[in-house]
Amino acid sequence: MTGSLNMKSTQLDGGFLGGAQRYHAPVRRLALGMANWIAVLPFFMFALLFLILPTGFLMVGAFQDPQGHFTLANFRDLFQPGVLDAYWISFKVSAASAIGGAVIGSLLAWAAVQGRLPAWIRPTLMTFSGVASNFAGVPLAFAFICTLGRVGLVTVLLKKYAGINLYSTGFSILSFAGLTLTYLYFQIPLMVLIVTPALDGLKREWREACDCLGGTSSQYWRYVALPVLWPSVLGATLLLFANSFGAVATAYALTGSSLNIVTILLYAQIRGDVLHNQNLGYALALGMILVTGLSNGGYIWLRARAERGRR
Asked: What are the record keywords, sorted (predicted)?
């Protein structure tokens, strides 16, 4: 009799606890979901305040005149010779620094990953790349002026010990070549950081299979490695292009107004000097957003393609 009562009590307790667990499970899932959303709330707030709202403000202002009336004159002014020249110079600087950074950065990453170098080379290169890829703005411009300016360290050493007057060749740190060279300082490390995981994704079995089938090293890179790597390399090049196209602090601190790139022209329109046309500045910024957005979109698409290819 006592055993039967204990069994019934256990069944009742089990049923009660099971029902309680089934009742509390949705509550726990709801609480966990709310906690997850609260955790990502700062990201959405940051995106709203510093990306979505400013972009919307630019889009509205680009279609307004100083009195707030609707107009398309700002976009018509984008086709003025001075504005087109600024876009063209920015395009050339961005393309040159992106291609140069992609080539040199890819070779550096390949040497560190695939080359037979000492083990300490790769972590040292990656550490330097992580720091140098974020070194820009006024400090970078000052560093290059001190290094390659008219009285910079390298300029003086070349003239004193090698008899080479760098500035007699037409070079200037304030020119197109000087700005491109300065941009390469952070473009090359950024390329190293982006393309290294793609090189790590090349499986050793692919190279061994090529060797077993009698393939040469050039055939391996032509028919196996490069078809796998090209989406990553091309996507990273587009990202480098967007990275340099939107840079303003380094260019302004280095060249001032001597090199008319679109970011400096935009700054001149916004800050309120004699060229002040705030709404034209909004249209300039909208054009830059379009260019960098297309570049970043191409990078995202190519990165997804590269990931599918590695799988």
From this structure: Cell membrane, Membrane, Transmembrane, Transmembrane helix, Transport
Identify the DSSP state of 120: T
Query: Which amino acid is residue 32, in one-letter code?
Result: L
Whole-model pTM?
Answer: 0.82
Q: How many domains does the chain have?
A: 2
User: Per-residue pLDDT tens for 57-109?
Assistant: 888 999 988 888 899 998 998 899 989 999 999 999 999 999 999 999 999 99
Cα dihedral sign, 59-65-67-68? negative
| 218 and 298 housed in the same domain | yes
Q: Do residues 169 and 57 both lie within one domain? A: no
The boundaries of the domain holding residue 11 are 1-62
Residue pair 98/104 in contact by the 8 Å Cβ criterion: no
Q: Token pair of 145, please?
A: 């002026």
Contacts of residue 25, defined as CB under 8 A and 6 or more positions apart, other chains included, come to: none
Rg (CA), the chain: 29
With CA atoms as reference, report the closest residue to 62 among 50, 72, 49, 52: 72
- DSSP secondary structure of 211-247: HHTT--HHHHIIIIIHHHHHHHHHHHHHHHHHHHHT-
Residue where a domain stops, chosen among 39, 62, 85: 62
> ∠ CA(114), CA(115), CA(118), 5° rounding?
120
**Where residue 183 sits, what CATH number does that domain have?**
1.10.3720.10
Residue 68: inside a domain, yes or no? no
Same domain, 80 and 220: yes
Residue with tokens 């049923």: 15
